[in-house]
Amino acid sequence: MNQQVPIEGRGDIEGRRREREEAARNDAEPPAVQQRVENNNQPQWRLFSCIEAVLLNGRAHPENVSVNDYLRRNLLDDIDLDQRLLRASMFAFVQRCEEYINDVNALNRIFATTEYQVYKVFATAYPLLFREGILNLQRWQQADEVVKAGLQVNIRGQRDGGRLWIIVTNMLNDALDVALERAAQTAASAVEIKGVYDSIYDAKWSYVMSGYRREPLGMKVFNGKPQRIWTEAEVDITPDPANLDARVPERPNGLEIFVLTSEKGWPYDRFASRDVNIRKNNFKHVYIRREIMRVWYIIQRGLQTWWVEKTARRTPIHIVIGTPGIGKSYGVGSFLLHSLLHFNDGMLDVVAYFVGKIAYLIYNKKPGEEGRVERYKVPEDAVDAIAALVSKKKKGHIIVDIGKRLLTPPDELCHLSWGITVLTSPDTAHYEEWAKDTGGRRIIINCDDVRDMKAFVAWKKLCVLSEEVPRDKTRQQLKEELESEWKIVEERIDMVGPLPRFVFSAPDYDERLESVRKEARQLDSDNGKKYDKIISKSKGWQNDKVTHKLVKIVRVSSGTVNVESYRCRSLSVNIWNMLICTLFGILIVEMTSKEIIMSDESVGANAFERLALLSLLFPRVFKVIANNLKYLRRGREIADRRSILNDMAPQQLRLIGQKALPAAQQRPIERCEHMVLYLPATGNEPVVDGFFFVEGRLRRNRDGTAPPTTPNIAVLLQVTKSERHPTTTDKVQKFRENIASYFSDWNTFSGNMAWEMIYINSVNGGTITHRQLCGGPPDRDRGEDGGPLGPQTFWESIDQFQVTLKETMQAELIQAYRRESGMRDAPALMGLAGRRRAREEVVEGRGDVAMDDVEGGEDA
């Protein structure tokens, strides 16, 4: 076996042959490769450039190059090698080629090629550098003498190791010099923005307190910092998935939000760089709510363990995930920046902020040094500047605001020793691949709750900084204006969801509402199925353009410490209704297509069973159900009673909308509404699955006359597959307590209320034929002295009815579905004006509204 070692520069012995080889190789290589080699004459190294790229000097990785390709490219294909060796990679070949080739001349020809020499250096040195964690030029710069001495010993221990060590160190040091020069040039290209640092650091504070009954909306605005800000325990509310929709107690009055005002704006707004007054005024204020404070507490804890206590094993990296439009960039990003500058008495030297195609470096003030903000129009230049700061042992933190113009965090950031916070939507394409290398904790941020947004509406009108409030306005005028403004915002929230980006601006709201309707109309049988699962609360975020306009995420516990997850919910009741109606349309088409193998009875019953009470939102379906009710007599009764639904005129049998009952942290509904389907937020509401109220004046005697007293009627609904559905006094009492807490005007509205229960039996189950009983001890108080009824007496007062899907009504049901698929005039698809019109028609007893007369109609 030949052990001859090539002499450095041996390829130049036959100079003319070397020139021919180089020319032939260039001709054989694709233009892209040629361009890359040419560019290597003037390398554009950066501090984050990989050691791998430096050692390969622009060539493909040897693992991706076969021996056969190498020989052909270097005009060495006349060398006779085994086929298996020809298929091997150059990474393996350069380490053992002398074991396979005995021809000295052939070996010398191979050793003389530049490509072989580059791969030999790489295969020898890179594994040793990798083992020491030296993956980029900055790590090479930071490697101490002990590490480099160890590398020198290991590389010199290889054959021809002395020469290899010189080559490797020269290549890395030359590249590092270029990178440092580039970093210096980059720093010089930064543009300082005057006055911005002080505006951020000294941002003005104000806050909103609730509990002032005589003030507009019960709220009052104060200047300065709140005397007390919510504790971490107060804001860290993360339910288990099973309790996600459970109703929690109303939070007490007190601090609602606080507001930071920077006269120069914030990074999200590019510091009002366009200098438009309207833009500047809109974007210089950011309001901070409990969820944002929770994010800061988590990040602050990571900073403390890394920079102060020095107990963390890795840099604090966090990925803040929230529904698009809730203010991650505007609120979270701005507050994080302000808080980072003040962290531990200004401990951090620099905060970097990447947004769109711009990056800012905010240099904190230090003794003898003023704070400043520098703007980089090329984010890569900012990365180089950060690398230079890290090499100088500066402390800092990086905020990356993901958006349309910045889809993922810069890869090079993961090699730094600074913490990173990424602000992103739930679309995993923005962060998942990046996070595989960096790790990081996910922080799920919920949407604003109604009280947050109500407080901001109050702040805008009442704050002393606002120029919108003339001094000559009376308190009553101000109160009326503010209540009117809040009512408008509240209606917008009901329609498009709790998204500050869209509910505080009329043009943005109108555009969003139209966009929501458009996206809902475009759902079909293929993409609609995933929303069916979202409605049933069993599906996660879908990375498409439709999801973020229809769905929000809600934080839940994953069961693992410091690991958060989320579930999807519709953004608003209106959107939920739109999805329901769209899914019904899809369902009807699917069921109709199955008629060749299914009877009308099966088609109608299956459709109703799948979405149960929501079918009642369709007037024609509601009428079919009402017309097929059967009374369940009490023990001694010999005659049937009539349901209020039987007393109503056909045109009055219309639910005008659907509302979810208050869920976690939500206030009671201000007033009960007639003919609105109320559905519990939890899946385990005792006694009922839903209910609605009917005006007592619609009650009629058998002869058609009105009774002397007309209390409101509550119609309770329960879907069941069983032939029995008894309850208990405990459940009945819990239901009564719940329903009283759902509505602010319950005591007034429910006076002398009459009650009905309708059991809806599904197609594949048993049929209820007898009155359902309430188990438990007898009541001590039967309400005879004017006091409240006990649960047993209350249950006995309820008239019970039943309807089953196994009777002749099923053919009527499928016909109703068919008509609905063509008409689509359920209240769910109407705008607010359309819903008001429908309510008036129910009250006045007018006939069905033609589609052209209903706002939204087919295009809703």
Strand content: 5-15%
Q: Please give the order of strands in the largest beta sheet.
A: 1-9-8-7-10-11-6-12
Q: Major sheet, described briefly? A: 8 strands, mixed
Task: Give the structural class.
Answer: alpha/beta
Mean pLDDT: 79
By DSSP, the count of extended strands is 23
Question: What Rg, in angstroms, do the CA atoms define?
Answer: 36 Å
Pfam family, one: RHSP
Biased composition (Basic and acidic residues): 9-28
GO biological process, one term: mRNA export from nucleus
Domain Retrotransposon hot spot protein N-terminal: 197-311
What does this structure look like?
This protein has 860 residues and is of the alpha/beta class. Among the domains are: 10-189, no CATH class; 576-859, no CATH class. β7 and β8 form a beta hairpin. α26 packs across α32. The N and C termini lie far apart (83 Å). One of its GO terms (biological process) is mRNA transcription by RNA polymerase II.
